[in-house]
Write a structure and sequence with these properties.
By secondary structure, the chain is an alpha/beta fold. It is built from 15 helices and 11 strands. Helix content is 35%, strand content 17%. A hairpin with a 2-residue loop joins β5 (199-201) and β6 (204-205).
Length: 386
């Protein structure tokens, strides 16, 4: 399979965002339809060309319901729920399906109106019969912030990471957001601002946590021959990797290590690159300390060294590893599942379309999606300007 993937180039030929922020004049299906039409137009394709469809949970909906709305009858479909990392998983699975001849044009779509609907679950039910009911709910842990706060506290204790280090991640994201007219918040932000924001779940403060917004996107993955007709520059998928460990935080083997250590290793090996080759990094920044863990797990720095690494300004505009270049989930948009927007931004950076936030001469980008409770899932995608 590895040989087939490496000898059959696969490309992202179109990307688009749905309406973002607070969306009151669309539903989730119509939001995906708008983004899909735009992404397919970039790829020089139409809905009639789509023969594979991928989406993760849109409420209780999956690929069947989305396909019905879009008028699609795919040969290949998937709606697995890997949380916010689902879309990087889907790029991997679409790449495999295309390389083995199961499809030629894969559409990946997602939309959420979690801000408008205010329907995000805050705690596990004590009656759900799961491990959470036995080992988590009785202690009052909140979903998902309580799980991530446990991870942050352990990480800080074990490696001497400070609140200032966490705050630097939020400041870096905001500096990028200031350059993005679509970002939800663009006001200046300082380390002191982050550290003086309200405590939500010790040690995580309000500005250590991602936004709650509406949004989503669409991505078209296809063959080299179909990508030749694209209206915009297609971007090659060089490497992919995926992994998952546990769902419940009580079953997490190490709160300071994520499954990204495995997905990153596989993706970088397939792509034939080293961390030092990466020009743009798009991590899943749902919480500030999470970005520090990803930097370490993917090999951008050693274990326990990410705090010092970010404190040097390496993630900010002009830094050695431009990261969260859209403003990320902390300042740009977090529609419940951010992973699809990481891919959209990575493609735009490699095309040179990012405007004021463009990273000069960007040739290799990494989108790293994670999901679940306390880092249950991870998938890494390496993209390159061909």
């Amino acid at each position: 399979m590895t040989h087939a993937l490496t000898t059959s180039p696969v490309y992202i030929a179109g990307v688009a965002e749905t309406p973002l922020g607070k969306v009151t004049d669309q539903n989730e299906f119509s939001m995906v339809a708008l983004a899909a039409r735009e992404a397919l137009a970039e790829a020089g394709l139409g809905f009639r060309d789509v023969d594979a469809l991928f989406t993760n949970y849109m409420g209780e909906e999956g690929s069947v319901q989305l396909g019905e709305y879009l008028g699609l009858r795919p040969r290949y479909a998937e709606s697995s729920d890997m949380g916010g990392a689902s879309f990087e998983f889907f790029v991997h699975h679409a790449m495999t399906a295309i390389a083995t001849g199961r499809c030629e044009v894969a559409l990946i779509g997602y939309a959420s109106r979690q801000r408008s609907r205010r329907n995000r679950k805050k705690a596990a039910s004590a009656l759900d019969g799961s491990l959470a009911a036995q080992f988590e709910t009785p202690f009052g842990i909140h979903f998902p912030i309580g799980h991530y706060a446990l991870s942050a506290a352990r990480y800080m204790h074990q490696y001497g990471v400070t609140l200032e280090h966490l705050a630097e991640v939020a400041v870096a994201a905001r500096q990028w957001a200031a350059l993005n007219p679509k970002a939800w918040v663009r006001d200046p932000l300082s380390i002191d601002d982050v550290m003086s924001s309200p405590m939500l779940c010790d040690p995580l403060r309000k500005l250590d946590c991602c936004l709650v917004t509406d949004g989503g996107g669409a991505i078209v993955v296809t063959t080299k021959s179909r990508a030749r007709d694209a209206a915009k520059r297609p971007i090659r998928v060089l490497g992919v990797g995926e992994s998952h460990v546990q769902w419940h935080v009580s079953q997490c083997p190490d709160l300071t290590v994520t499954p990204g250590i495995f997905s990153g290793r596989d993706a970088f090996a397939m792509a034939g690159i080293k961390p030092s080759d990466v020009d743009v990094f798009e991590p899943y920044d749902n919480f500030t300390h999470a970005v520090l863990l990803y930097l370490e797990d993917l090999g951008f720095c050693g274990k326990g060294e990410a705090g010092a690494f970010v404190s040097e300004g390496n993630l900010r505009p002009g830094g050695s590893l431009p990261s969260m270049t859209s403003g990320g989930g902390l300042s740009y948009c977090h529609p419940g599942a951010l992973g699809i927007l990481l891919l959209v931004e990575a493609v735009r950076q490699l095309r040179g379309e990012a405007g004021d936030r463009q990273v000069p001469d960007a040739e290799i980008a990494v989108a790293h999606g994670t999901g679940g409770l306390a880092f249950s899932t991870a998938s890494t995608v390496v993209l390159a300007r061909d």
